[in-house]
Design goal:
The chain is α+β, with helices and mostly antiparallel strands. It has helices spanning about 5-15, 40-50, 150-160, 235-240, and strands at about 20-25, 30-35, 55-65, 80, 80-85, 110-120, 125-130, 140, 165, 195-200, 205-210. A hairpin with a 4-residue loop joins strand 10 and strand 11 (about 205-210). The longest helix is centred in the first third of the chain and has 13 residues, at about 5-15.
Length: about 240
């Protein structure tokens, strides 16, 4: 007997057919992947169709898949000086200004917007994922006309990932400062940022300057045996006596 999650996946596949790129059931969640051109039509039907009725948009998340599944740390064992350092500069903690990460995804598969939907009528949840077709200029259509709550969610994805939502009524930063440079949740964004700000008493305003912090990665401390903390056996015996 099919589980409720599998029943939902089968219903989605039957209703939308070739308009869905994929339907998966994993980690107790149902996820559908939609092309950019089909996004608005599909989510509108998901909201209005009586068999689905996803009335609420819970969240919109941006995702950067540029280094998906890759790890620069080799932590199977530890030496006396700590865990092995990164074998390749594959994270923002190791990047210098102007460096770019090697892309592990094909063109048009780096940035995605993920929509989390909730149906009160059927007590179901659904994840909808859409990839921006252009990595250099990621754009997906807005869904603010379908769910008003998408307004702030899409602004957050734009601010942190640089994903543009065409048709959004007021697409501007929502978490970072107006003078912020870059998008901090991108995998190639340096952990120290690009600029720093301070108050200039002469100009009587906040000014932005190039960041002065040098990027570095700390080696995790490893607890290891040390003879300085050992107690000799004869001393222990004498103390017991």
């Amino acid at each position: 007997m099919a589980t409720p999650k599998q029943q939902l996946a089968d219903a989605l596949q039957a209703s939308f057919a070739d308009r869905l790129d994929s339907v998966t059931v994993a980690h107790n969640e149902v996820t559908i992947e939609v092309a950019v051109d089909n996004l608005v039509a599909v989510v509108t039907e998901l909201r209005d169709d009586p068999q689905f009725r996803f009335q609420q948009l819970v969240d919109v998340c941006g995702v950067d898949y540029s280094q998906f599944g890759r790890d620069e740390w080799l932590t199977e064992d530890a030496s006396r000086s700590g865990f092995s350092r990164g074998v390749a500069e594959a994270s923002s903690g190791r990047l210098q200004f102007g460096d770019e990460l090697e892309s592990l995804t094909p063109q048009g598969r780096r940035f995605a917007a993920v929509y989390h939907l909730l149906s009160y009528a059927h007590n179901r949840r659904l994840r909808v994922r859409v990839f921006a077709p252009d990595d250099d200029f990621p754009v997906v259509p807005t869904v603010t006309e379908i769910w008003a709550s998408a307004d702030w969610y899409e602004r957050e994805a734009f601010d942190l990932f640089g994903i543009l939502f065409s048709g959004h009524p007021d697409l501007r930063r929502i978490l970072t400062d107006y003078g912020f440079v870059g998008h901090p949740f991108r995998k190639d964004f340096p952990m120290v940022g690009h600029v720093e700000m301070r108050y200039d008493p002469e100009r009587e305003r906040v000014v932005y300057e190039p960041v002065t912090i040098e990027p570095r990665v700390l080696v995790p401390r490893v607890k290891r045996e040390d003879h300085r903390y050992f107690i000799d056996q004869p001393e222990e015996a004498q103390d017991d006596a």
